[in-house]
Amino acid sequence: MLDNGKNESNPLRGYANTPILPLSKACAPLQEHLHNLSFYVDMALEDTPEQPLDGLTIDESAAIRLYTIEWDAPHHSLYSMLNFHLKATNRQELLPYFKYLKLFISALSKLQCVPSLTVWRGVTKNLTEDFPLDSRVTWWAFSSCTTEMTVLENNMYLGREGDRTLFSVEAINGRSIRDHSHFVTENEILLLPGTHMVVQSQLSPAPNLYIIHLKQIKPDEELLELPFEGAHIFPKEMHPWYWKKRFSIPMIFLMILIITGVIIGAVLGTRKSFIPHVLPCTNPFESFGSINGGQYPSSIVLAHFTNDTYLDAAITVANESSVIIFLGDPTNILHSSKIITGEQPVSIITADFNNDTRKDLAIVNSGDNTIIVALGIGNGLFQSQNTYSVGSSPSSILSDDFNNDNKLDLIVVSQDSNTVNVLLGDGLGNFIVSSNNSVGYYPSFAVSADFNNDSKLDLVVTNSFDNTISVLLGYGNGSFLIHMTYATGSYPTFLISDDFNNDNILDIAVINNKNNTISILLGIGNGSFYSQYTYTTGSSPICLRSSDFNKDNNIDLAIVNSDDDSIIIFFGYGNGTFAEEATYATGNYPVYLVFGDYNNDNNTDLVVINNEDATVSLFTGRANGTFVFVQSYGTGNSPISLTVADFDNNGILDFAVVEQTDNTVSVLLGIGRGVFQMALNYTVGKNPSFIISSDFDNDNNQDLIIANSDADSVSVLYGNGDGFFHPPLNVTVGSLPSSLTSIDLNKDGYIDLIVVNNGENNIRILLNDGNKTFYMYSNYSVGKSPSSIVSSDFNRDGNIDLAVTSKDDDIVSVLFNRGNGSFYTSANYTVGKSPSCVICADVNKDTYGDLIVANYGQNTISILFNNGAGIFYNISTFIVGRYPTSLVAVDFNNDEHLDLAVANSGSNSVSVLLGISNGTFQSQIKYTPGIFPTSIASGDLNNDQKPDLIVTNGKSNDAYIFLNNCPK
C-alpha cells in the first residue's frame, strides 16, 4: 500500500533516545511480532562483509540488509510491518521497533545523500485524486524508489495493463543502499520517513497511465528526529551556479517531464516488451562440476553447518545408511564427513530444533520406519541422535511450528500407512508423536503453509495412487482436518506452494511422474483451489522447486526429469502461467534438487543429486536466470592437445584429444547441450604432441592429423563422417615434430600440411596430392626450438603466409608466401621469454591479422599489430597465469570485441581477458580446470550460438567443458 500522505501523523520522535545496540539485541523486542525473525537476522549478519562500505559497522550494514530481505510467504517482512506502523495515525504499535529504528536510521544517515535526481515509484491504481496540484504531501514510511526505468515493466511495481500511477520524484536526500542490500543488482534509492513534497504536475501520456510529478522540499518543522547529534538527514546547503536560474529551471524540467511522459506513454501504451540497454557480460564462465555422493544418494539440504558464509550440504545415502556432510570453503571445494543413520535414509531437512542458533538435522529412514534427529555442534559435526518411530515406509519430512508455541515441530509422510504423522517439539531438540492423520492412498510428499489465511499452518499432501492431493486445514494446536481433495495428473509425487500469480494468495504446483506433466492449482484464499492446468515436462519428472531465478519479481520453476537426465527451467509471467526457457543436462538419473547461493554471488544456484552415478551436480546461476554446469570427461593419460569439429555430421560439435603417455587419440562425440559420449580410442605414433582436423580428402568429412614427436612422423586418420575413423596412415617428417597447421598452399583445391620440426629448427611443407598421400615439398629454417605455427595472409597479397614461434630464441618468425607454395623469411620479432603458442586474429578491428603469442617463460601474452603489409609493430604485453601453453581468440561476451582465453599449465588455471577496443584487454579473469592444463579450444558445444571452451588437463587426465553463460 502506498503512503498517500493524507494521514495526520505527528513527527517521528522518541526512537533516538534508545541506545544503539547490536542488530540481534535491537531486534529482540520484535521477536513476537515477526515470524522467524532470528533466522533472517542471522542471514543478514552472515551476508554482511567484515568491512562494510561507507564506514558502517557490521550491525549497521546488516540492519539495512535485514530491511531489504523478503520473508517467505505467507509471512510479513520486517519492512512491510515497519512501514505499516509508520503510516498509522496512532504509532503506539511502533514502540517495539524503536531500537531497530535507532540502528537503521543511524546507518542510513551515515550514507551520503545521492545528488538531487529524479527517482521513480509505481503503483497499480489511479491516485490522481489523492494528489491535487500544488498540494503538499508527506510520505511517513520508508519509500523504495528506483532510478531504472525497467521498473515500468515489472508486474510487482507497475506492469503494463490496468490503472497505473507512476510517481516522478525530484529527491534531495535519497540514500542508495545497493552496497548494503540483500538484492545487489537493484539500484534502490530509499527515501526516509517524513519525506515532504509538493505536487508539481500530473500527466496521462497513455490510456490508464498517470504520471504525478512530486518535488521534495525541506519541511517547515523537523518531521524525522535526528538519530544522533551531528547526523545529517539532508545534505548541507550550497548555492551552486544555477541558483540565479532557480525560477527558469522548473519550467525546463516540466518540459522535459512532458517529453519523457510522451516517450513513456509510447513505451507502455504501444509495446509489449521493454528492452533495456544490456551491459557487456564480464564473467562468461563458471568452474563447477560434480562431486561424489556415495551409493544411491537420495536427498539433500543446504545450510551453514559451520556458521561461516559458505553453504554446506548434507546428503542422504540410502545404500550406505548414512548422511554425508560436505563443508564448503572459499575455494568452492567440498570437504566431507559421515553420519550413521537408520536403514535406507531417503529424506532430510535442517533447522534449529533446540534453539541454540546451530543447524540440526532430521532424517527419515524408510527401511526401519524411524526418523533420527541429530543436533548440530556448529562446526559441521552433529551429536545427540534421538530416534522416533513413525508410520510404515516414511518418505518425506517437513518442519514448522504447527501448534503455535514458538517451537519447531515435525510432519512425516508414511506411504504404506497412508498417514501423516505429527511430532511436536519441546524446543530442546526432543519430540513426541502427537497424532496420525489419514490421507489418500500412498501419500508421498507434503508442504505446509497458511492456505486459508487464518494464521494457522495447513498441509497439502500428494496421494500417488489416488492421483489426488489432500488439503488439511490446521487448528493451530498441532491437529488437522481434511478439507478438500483435488485431482492431479498421473502419480503425483512432489509438490510446492508459492504465489505464482502475484495476488498474495498461495498456489500449488504438483509433479505428475507418470504422465510427464506438472499441475498448477491457483489458490482462492480460503484453503480451496481452482482446478488444475498442466504443462509438459521431460520424462519422469521427480522434483520441483520455485524461486525468482531471473530477478523479474515473478516466480519461476525448476523441474528435475529423472529419465531424461535433465532439469528444465520454466520462467513465470507473474499471472500464474509459465514458458519453458531452457533445459540443462545432469548426471545419471537425477532425483532431487535444492537451491541456494552456493558461491556467494547473490544469484540462485542449483544442486542436483544424481542417483545412479552417485554424483551431485552443481549449477551456478546468473542474474538473467540461466545456469552454468562445467562437466569434465576422462581421457587417456597425459592429454596434451585437442581439436574441435563435427566428426559425425550431425550439426553438433565433437572433439578429439591426443594422449602422450598412451600414444592414442580419443574422439568424444557431442550429443547436444554440451554433453559428450564416452571416448573412442585410436592408436597413433609414439609420444603424440599435437592434433589438427580438416577435410584432407575432399569427401566432406573431417579427418585428423597427429604429430608424433618421438616417431618423427605424423598419423593421418581419415574420417567416415559417422564419428569413426580409418586406421592411421603414418608419414615420416623431420625430427621431433611439435606443431601443425594446414592450408591450401598451392591453390590446387587440396589442403596441405605444414609441420614444425623442433629437433631440426625448421618447418616442413607437405603437399597433398588429393589421393590420400602427402609428399615432402620443401624445408625452411626458423629459430631454435620452434614450438608453434599459424597461417594467414599477413600482407594481403592473396597468398597464405606463416608465423612460427621459437622458444630458445624468444622470437616469432614471419615467412611470406611467394604464391607457388614456397616461402621466404620476412622478419623475426622478439617477444617474451620461451614463446609456446601463436595464433592470428584481428584484435584492433583494422581488418589486418595480428599475432597473439603466449610466453611460457614470462607468464605473459604479447600482441603484435599488423600494419597491413605484413609488418608487425607496437608489441603490447598482458599478464596471465603461470606457464601459459595454449590460447584462443573469440568474442565470448558478444560485445563485438575479441577476447582471449589462455591455458596456464603452471597455475592450473584458464585466464580470460575480455577485449575493450583498439587491441587492449581487461585484466585476466581466472577459472579453474583440472590439473596441468595443456591445450584449449573454443566452439559452440551446446548449440546456443555462444562460444564455449574445452581444456585438456595433462595430469588429471581429463578434459573440462566450460559452457558460456553470457547473454546472446
Automatic annotation (TrEMBL):
Cross-referenced PROSITE patterns: TR_MART (PS51996)
KW Transmembrane helix (keyword) present: yes
GO molecular function: NAD+-protein-arginine ADP-ribosyltransferase activity; nucleotidyltransferase activity
EC identifiers of the protein: 2.4.2.31
EC main group: transferase
Gene3D superfamilies, sorted: 2.30.30.100, Integrin alpha, N-terminal (2.130.10.130), Toxin ADP-ribosyltransferase, Chain A, domain 1 (3.90.176.10)
Keyword entries, A-Z: Glycosyltransferase, Membrane, NAD, NADP, Nucleotidyltransferase, Signal, Transferase, Transmembrane, Transmembrane helix
Transmembrane segments: 247-268
Reaction(s) the record says it catalyses: L-arginyl-[protein] + NAD(+) = N(omega)-(ADP-D-ribosyl)-L-arginyl-[protein] + nicotinamide + H(+)
SUPFAM superfamilies: ADP-ribosylation, Integrin alpha N-terminal domain
Family membership noted in the UniProt record: Belongs to the Arg-specific ADP-ribosyltransferase family.
PANTHER family associated with the record: SENSOR KINASE-RELATED (PTHR46580)
Name used for this protein in its record: NAD(P)(+)--arginine ADP-ribosyltransferase
